[in-house]
Design a protein that fits this description.
This protein is of the alpha+beta class. Helix content is 17%, strand content 27%. It contains eleven helices and 29 strands. The chain has an eleven-stranded mixed β-sheet with strand order 9-3-4-8-5-10-11-14-15-16-17, with helices on both faces. Helix 4 packs across helix 5 and helix 7 packs antiparallel against helix 8. It is globular. The N terminus is likely disordered.
Length: 582
C-alpha cells in the first residue's frame, strides 16, 4: 500500500498556479480567512520562511512496545506568521514519512489449506523503496493549506521515525496515535519538545481535518471511529475501511495488486523505522501468528482492524475518494464505507474516478469541504449531491447518491447466458490455471475457466453498486479458489475488467468459519464482487468469467484442481440501470 505523492504535488502546483487570487494578507486587507465561492483563498504567507514551524512528542495512552512507558508520537506543525491567532488544522498522519524497509513477502506458490493438513510457508525477497525528508515531511501539501488560513500538522505513526511504540498494521494503538494529537490540540493531552519541556499548541484551534492517500488515508478512517469531537472532517483517498478485506476475501487469502504475498506482518516490518527496531520483534511476530494465513478466516485480530464495524461512532464528515481500477486498495473499501456511513446519517460524499491507486477529489472540492467543516463557512457543501463520478474522458457527473439513482439488482441464472462456441449444457467442468490473471485483459483458455456472455446491448447500460454471484459447484478435491470477474466484451479479443471478487468454498457459511469440503458433493458458494461504476456501451456484451486461482491475487496451488459448475442453479446479480436484452 505505497504512499502516493501525486496528491501533494498537485496541491502544491495549484497553490502557486491558480490565477486571479489574492496572494497576501496585506493585499487582501483582511484579518481573517478570505473565502470566495465557498473556498478559502491563499491570502497568508506562502513561503515556509514566513511560517512558524515546530515539533513535539505527544504522549499516547498505550504501551504498544511493552517497555513500561506510554508511547509517544512525533509531530511537526506549522502555521503562517500573519494568520489569525487560532487557526483550524489540516492533519496528515503517516507511517511513511521517514522511509521504509526491504522486507520479504510470504510465498504464495503452495497448496491451499484444508483441515488436518500440514501447512508451511517460506519467504521470497521483494524490495520496495520509501522516502525521507528533513523539516516538514510534506511541505508541498502544507503549501496549499497554510496560506489559506489553516494550520498544518504531521504525525509520524507509532514505530516510525522518532515516534516510539510499534506498527501493528491498523491496530488500535495506531488509531490512538493521531487521536492523542487531536486531544493535545484540544487541551486534553500532553507533549514535550526535544529538551523535555512541556509544549502547548499555541496558535491552533481544536477544529481538525485529516487527509491522506492509501495508509495515510486509512488512519483518518480509523481515528474517525473514535468519535473524538474535534475531528470535524476527513478526506480518505484510496483508503482501507476494513483490513480483512485488504488481505482476505470470503475466507480466501488475497493480495493487494503488485504485492503478492504481503500481509499484516510484512507491512509492519516494511514501515518500522524507529531507532530501536528490535523491541518490536515480538509484537510483529505476534501479528504473523494472529493474522492466520492458513485458513484465511476472519477473527478477533481482523475485527480489531474493521473500522466499518464501528462506523456508528463516526461524527466527522467524510469525503471518500477512490479509483475504480484500484486493485491495491480495492473499490469496496470506499463503497462499503460510504454505505455504512450513509446508513448512520454521517455527512458523507464519494468521488469515483476511472484510474488506479490514488487520485484525490478535485482540489476545489477538498477546499470547500474543509472550509465548511473546519472554518464553519456556510457554503452549502453539505447539501450538494453526494456522488461525484469522473468519466473516462475526464468529465464530472454528479448524482444525488450512490449507487446512482435508477440502478437496481437484477438476478439471472447463468443458464440464460451464452458460452460462445460451445453447446448449452447444465454442468460445466474446468481446471485451475494459476498462470492466468483477470488483469491481463485476455479470456481464460478453454477448459481452464468459463466465460458467459449476454446478448449485445441495444443501448448503453450502467452498472452501479455491488455485483454478486451465487454459484452451485462441486470440487474434485477438498479445496480450491473461486474467482469471478465481470468484463466488457466489445467484440475483439481484449476484455476490459469491470470488477471481480474471490472466495474460499470452505467458508461457504461465512468468513469466520472454515468447514471441510467433501469432494464430489454439490454446494452453494456466494462471491461478493468489488464495488463498481461502469457504463457498458451499446453493441458490446457483458461477460461473466468464472475461474479458480488468479495469479496476481490468490494463493497459487501446484496442481490443476478441478471444479464443476451447475449453470442452471447458479445466478449472477448485477446492479444495472436497465434490464438485459432477452
Amino acid at each position: 500500500m505505497k504512499r502516493n505523492a501525486g496528491t501533494a504535488i498537485a496541491l502544491a502546483l495549484a497553490a502557486v498556479a491558480t490565477p486571479g487570487l489574492v496572494t497576501s494578507s496585506a493585499a487582501a486587507g483582511a484579518t481573517g480567512p478570505v473565502v470566495v465561492d465557498g473556498a478559502a483563498q491563499p491570502v497568508y504567507a506562502s513561503a515556509p520562511r514566513d511560517w512558524i514551524v515546530k515539533e513535539a512528542w505527544v504522549t499516547v495512552p498505550v504501551d504498544s512496545d511493552r517497555d513500561g512507558r506510554p508511547d509517544r508520537v512525533h509531530v511537526n506543525y506549522a502555521r503562517a506568521k500573519d494568520a489569525p491567532d487560532r487557526v483550524p488544522v489540516v492533519m496528515a498522519a503517516s507511517p511513511y514519512f521517514t522511509g521504509v524497509n526491504e522486507v520479504p513477502n510470504h510465498n504464495v506458490d503452495h497448496d491451499l489449506y484444508y483441515p488436518d493438513t500440514r501447512w508451511a510457508q517460506r519467504t521470497d525477497a521483494l524490495a520496495r523503496q520509501g522516502n525521507s525528508a528533513n523539516g516538514l515531511h510534506d511541505p508541498w501539501t502544507a503549501a496549499y493549506w497554510v496560506p489559506r488560513g489553516f494550520g498544518w500538522v504531521e504525525v509520524e505513526s507509532l514505530g516510525t521515525g522518532t515516534s516510539t511504540g510499534c506498527p501493528t498494521t491498523g491496530g488500535t494503538n495506531e488509531t490512538l496515535g493521531p487521536k492523542a494529537v487531536i486531544d493535545w490540540l484540544a487541551g486534553r493531552g500532553h507533549a514535550v519538545d526535544a529538551r523535555g519541556r512541556t509544549v502547548r499548541p499555541d496558535g491552533f484551534r481544536a477544529s481538525v481535518g485529516m487527509v491522506g492517500t492509501s495508509y495515510d488515508g486509512t488512519l483518518p478512517n480509523a481515528v474517525a471511529t473514535t468519535g473524538v469531537p474535534e475531528l470535524k472532517a476527513i478526506i480518505p483517498i484510496s483508503a482501507i475501511s476494513d483490513w480483512y478485506d485488504y488481505y482476505r476475501s470470503g475466507g480466501a487469502v488475497v493480495a493487494p495488486q503488485s504485492y503478492q504475498g504481503e500481509d499484516a506482518d510484512v507491512l509492519a516490518k516494511f514501515v518500522l523505522t524507529r531507532a530501536n527496531r528490535a523491541i518490536c520483534a515480538p509484537i510483529i511476530k505476534d501479528l504473523g501468528r494472529r493474522q492466520d494465513r492458513r485458513t484465511g478466516d476472519r477473527n478477533a485480530f481482523w475485527q480489531e482492524r474493521n473500522y466499518r464495524a464501528r462506523a456508528g461512532r463516526v461524527t466527522a464528515a467524510v469525503y471518500a475518494a477512490h479509483g475504480l481500477s484500484d486493485w491495491n486498495v480495492k473499490p469496496s473499501q470506499a463503497g462499503r464505507w460510504y454505505r455504512a456511513l450513509r446508513a448512520g446519517g454521517v455527512p458523507v460524499k464519494i468521488y469515483w474516478h476511472p484510474g488506479g491507486h490514488g487520485g484525490p477529489p478535485p482540489q476545489r472540492e477538498q477546499n470547500r469541504w474543509f472550509t465548511h467543516f473546519l472554518m464553519g463557512v456556510a457554503n452549502g457543501v453539505e447539501r450538494e449531491p453526494r456522488a461525484l463520478v469522473e468519466t473516462v474522458d475526464g468529465s464530472l457527473e454528479r448524482y444525488a447518491d450512490w449507487p446512482v439513482p435508477g440502478s437496481r439488482p437484477r438476478t439471472t441464472s447463468l443458464s440464460q447466458w451464452r458460452i460462445p462456441g460451445q453447446p448449452q449444457t447444465v454442468t460445466r467442468p474446468f481446471r485451475d490455471d494459476t498462470a492466468y490473471t483477470l488483469l491481463g485483459g485476455q479470456l481464460p483458455r478453454r477448459g481452464r475457466g468459463l466465460v458467459f456472455t449476454s446478448d449485445p446491448l441495444t443501448e448503453p447500460t450502467r452498472l452501479s453498486g455491488f455485483a454478486s454471484a451465487d454459484l452451485r459447484i462441486k470440487l474434485g478435491q477438498p479445496n480450491a479458489n473461486v474467482t469471478v470477474g465481470i468484463v466488457e466484451l466489445p467484440g475483439g479479443a481484449f476484455s476490459p475488467l469491470v470488477t471481480m471478487g474471490w472466495t474460499d468454498p470452505q467458508n461457504r457459511h461465512g468468513e469466520w468459519r472454515t468447514e471441510a469440503v467433501t469432494p464430489g458433493k454439490w454446494m452453494n458458494v456466494d462471491v461478493d464482487l468489488e464495488a463498481s461504476e461502469h457504463v457498458f456501451q451499446a453493441g458490446s456484451r457483458i461477460g461473466i468469467v468464472v475461474i479458480q486461482s488468479d495469479h496476481e491475487f490468490t494463493i497459487r496451488p501446484p496442481m490443476a484442481k478441478t471444479m464443476t459448475l451447475d449453470t442452471r442453479s447458479s445466478t449472477i446479480t448485477l446492479p444495472l440501470t436497465r434490464a438485459l436484452p432477452k
